[in-house]
Amino acid sequence: MGNEVDKELSEKYCPRFAQLAVEKGFITSDQAKKALSEQVDDNLANRPHRLIGRILLEKGWITAQQIETVLNEMFKKVG
């Protein structure tokens, strides 16, 4: 069930998450494209869905603190 929630959140927020992370200078646009591509590949191969932040963190391209900053910014704008 948690995976479905992740997937729903991801579809709404992942491209924005990547965009904001690039705008803040945390990752490059190339890294964002690679992470989004990896996420799509996972989904097409029926592998467990991963959020963009998790993919970026696993690759060592972003820190947990930077993820927190991006999420706070996203939900501040949404709320």
Key terms:
76% helix, globular, 79 residues, single chain, 4 helices, mainly alpha
Topology:
Blueprint: H1 2-23, H2 29-44, H3 52-58, H4 64-78
Helix pairs in contact: 1-2, 1-4
Question: Can you tell me the residue ranges where pLDDT is under 50 for at least 5 consecutive residues?
Answer: none
Overall residue-averaged pLDDT value: 86
Q: Whole-number radius of gyration?
A: 12 Å
Number of helices: 4
Structural class: mainly alpha
Q: How many DSSP-defined strands? A: 0
Total separate domains: 1
Instruction: Let me know the largest β-sheet.
Output: none
Q: Any idea what the shape is?
A: globular
Q: What is the percent of helical residues? A: over 70%
Reading the helices and strands in chain order gives HHHH
Head-to-tail CA distance between termini:
25 Å
Range of strand content: under 5%
Tell me what the structure shows.
The protein is an all-alpha fold and 79 residues long. It has one domain. The chain has helices spanning 2-23, 29-44, 52-58, 64-78. The radius of gyration is 12 Å and the shape is globular. The termini are far apart.
Task: Summarize, please.
Helix content is 76%, strand content 0%. By secondary structure, it is an all-alpha fold.
